[in-house]
Design brief:
By secondary structure, the chain is mainly alpha-helical. The chain has a domain of 136 residues: Serine Threonine Protein Phosphatase 5, Tetratricopeptide repeat. It is 84% helix and 4% strand. It has a two-stranded antiparallel ribbon with strand order 1-2. Helix 3 runs antiparallel to helix 4, helix 6 runs parallel beside helix 8 and helix 7 runs antiparallel to helix 8. It is rod-shaped and about 180 Å long.
C-alpha cells in the first residue's frame, strides 16, 4: 500500500517536473518567437527608412533640377526683358526721328504751300484804287506802272517816257492807262518836248474826260501852248478849262493865268 502511494507520489512529482520543463521550453520558444518578430520589424523599419530616404533624395534632386530650370528660365526671361527694353528704346528713338522728319516735312509743305500761294497771288488780278478809280489789274501791269513811275520820280524823264509809252502800248485797256498818259505827258513836258506832251494830255482827256486828272491835263496843255508862244491857243484852252471844270483846282489856276494874259 505504501509502495503504491510512493509510486503514485513519484509519478506525480515526475509529472510536475515534466510539466515544468515543458513550460520552460514554451517560454524559451516564445522568447525566440518574439525576437524574430522584433528583428523583422526592425528590418521592415529600416527598409521603410531607406525608401523614405531614397524618396527624399529623389525629391531633393527633382527640386534641385526644378530650381535650376526655374533659375535658367528666369535668366532667359531677364535677357528677353533686356532685349525688349533695347527694342523699345530703339523704337522710341526711331519714333522720335520719324516725328522730327514728319515735322520737317510738314514745315516744308507749309512753306511750299505759302510760296505757291504767293506766286499765284502775284499772277492773279488784283483790285486797284488809283486817283479815285477802282479797277482790276494783273500783277504785271501794276509792277510795270510802278516801275515807270519810280523812274519818273527819280528825274530820269527820258527813260520814263520809254517806260510809259511801252506800258500804254502793252496794256491799252488797263485802268492804269489814263494815269500813265498823264505822267508820260509830264515826262515830255519836263524834257521840253511840248508837242508830244500835248498829244498825250489830249489822249488822256479823250479817253476819260471825267477823270480826276483831266482838269490838270487841260491846264498842262495850256502851259505847253504858252511855252510854244501860242498865247491865243492858251487863252482858249484856259477858258474851256474854267467852263468844263469850274470847281476844280485847275480852274482856279486857269482864272489866274487868264487874268495875267489880258
Amino acid at each position: 500500500m505504501k509502495s503504491a502511494q510512493t509510486m503514485s507520489l513519484l509519478f506525480s512529482k515526475s509529472s510536475i517536473i515534466l510539466l515544468m520543463g515543458l513550460c520552460s521550453l514554451s517560454g524559451v520558444h516564445a522568447a525566440l518567437f518574439e525576437d524574430d518578430e522584433a528583428r523583422r520589424a526592425i528590418l521592415d523599419l529600416r527598409q521603410r527608412v531607406e525608401v523614405m530616404r531614397s524618396d527624399a533624395d529623389q525629391a531633393r534632386q527633382a527640386s534641385t533640377r526644378e530650381l535650376t530650370s526655374l533659375g535658367q528660365s528666369l535668366l532667359d526671361l531677364q535677357r528677353q526683358i533686356e532685349l525688349l527694353k533695347m527694342e523699345v528704346a530703339t523704337l522710341r528713338g526711331s519714333n522720335e526721328q520719324i516725328m522730327r522728319e514728319l515735322s520737317e516735312i510738314q514745315r516744308q509743305q507749309k512753306d511750299q504751300a505759302q510760296s505757291i500761294k504767293e506766286r499765284i497771288s502775284k499772277l492773279e488780278p488784283a483790285k486797284i484804287e488809283l486817283d479815285g478809280v477802282e479797277f482790276v489789274a494783273e500783277q504785271a501791269e501794276t509792277q510795270d506802272y510802278e516801275t515807270a513811275l519810280t523812274v519818273f520820280r527819280k528825274g530820269d524823264f527820258v527813260r520814263a517816257q520809254s517806260l510809259f509809252s511801252g506800258f500804254v502800248a502793252r496794256y491799252p485797256a488797263s485802268g492804269y492807262v489814263v494815269p500813265a498818259l498823264f505822267w508820260l505827258g509830264n515826262a515830255h513836258y519836263a524834257s521840253r518836248n511840248y508837242k508830244d506832251a500835248m498829244a498825250n494830255f489830249r489822249a488822256l482827256i479823250a479817253k476819260d474826260p471825267e477823270h480826276v486828272r483831266a482838269p490838270e491835263a487841260v491846264l498842262s496843255i495850256a502851259n505847253c501852248q504858252l511855252e510854244l508862244k501860242d498865247a491865243k491857243g492858251a487863252r482858249k484852252t484856259l477858258t474851256d478849262l474854267v467852263k468844263a471844270y469850274p470847281q476844280s483846282e485847275a480852274a482856279v489856276a486857269a482864272r489866274e493865268r487868264l487874268a495875267s494874259l489880258k
